[in-house]
Design a protein that fits this description.
seven-stranded mixed beta sheet, elongated, disordered C terminus, Rossmann fold, single chain, 2 domains, alpha/beta
Length: about 450
Amino acid sequence: MRVGVLTGGGDCPGLNAVIRAVVRKGVKEHGFEFVGYRNGWKGPLEGLTMPLGIEECRGILPRGGTILGSSRTNPFKLDHGVQQITDNLARDGVDALVAIGGEDTLGVATKLAELGVDVVGVPKTIDNDLSGTDFTFGFDTAVNIATEAIDRLHTTAESHHRVLVVEVMGRHAGWIALHSGIAGGASAVLIPEQPFDIEAVCRHVEARFESEYAPIIVVSEGAVPKEGGGMTLQSGEKDDFGHVRLGGIGDRLASEIEERTGKEARAVVLGHVQRGGTPTAFDRWLATRLGLHAADAVAEGDFGTMMALHGTRYKRQALRLARAAPDRRDAPLTGGDAGLRPVAARRRPSLRRPRGARGALEVLPRAGAPALAGAGPAVRGPHPRRAEQRGRRPSAARPRRRPPGGVRRRRPADVRAGPGRGARLRAAPGRGVTSAVGRVDR
């Protein structure tokens, strides 16, 4: 089987680790032959290839960037672009494609998969804003670089008694600003998810100076003030995917603070420093694991999927889920001086038994959640599934047996107290423990 690999979108620490993992496992365990497509989707579009084997992947694990190159090419913006890609894949004898990229690169992969191209996706972005996965590789490296910069800026800010505004990447997601700001001990963190009040920021700056402390403010490049969002755009240019180039909020914010408070303020724009350099250990680990699972997905013919991290487990998700998560950007946030804390926008309904009732449970939506149509006593018994797995009827349908006289007899339980501990109850074999506060199942 001949497999093509490409990396698209902005470069990111950990891309080479994915390439290395896919190739090494694909060659050694599945017998694949690989071809590298250069410069993102421009590679299969124009037939730009390079050899890609174990030799080419030696020593690239700690390297930043990507040995395949990258671009923001969108084949769906070009006449006959999709046809050129399918023709070149057939000419090169490529049976499947591994696309490593963010929302835009995997968006193209999703459309190609719908048209019959065998594609497996690996999500990457330093912004960490893709839905379907908890973390993307590159994010941890960007946060560590930004945190180190903030640590260094503390000393110069205190020495010169000036305000330092640190602008970080992230586009319309504030994860880099939020994590690095809190980790670096910033005085305030401004993120796109919550428009900020410039007057409140200035009052905070003055309060910090009254305590003889030079404030550091971390702002995401996509943050906007409540007065309007025109101050964040550096240019009106758009790329092939319709994204406007963001930037300039740091300089604008520093000038506003200096004008309104009279305190000297300087802006520090970290920019592409956050993308470069060697990836952290976490990003190498995450990228390697995603690459290994991508090779397995190709071997199993599970196309149209992307690899994802859920908690500590790696799973496969539909490629269509690889988009910037709107629930993250729209989630309300609250916070104080040390940073902002995201609050989950979606709330699950709770199961609650009406007082005095037995058997059925009501589905009651939490406060602020939309009403559930047809919500009612749909669940019977305390644990119907568990009862069915045991081959027994749910407790609501099973008659309760009581001893004569209607008094339930309790099994004795041994009470033991360890050194420095409270009393513990030891259950009789095969039974739960009955205590003064109720019955505890083993």
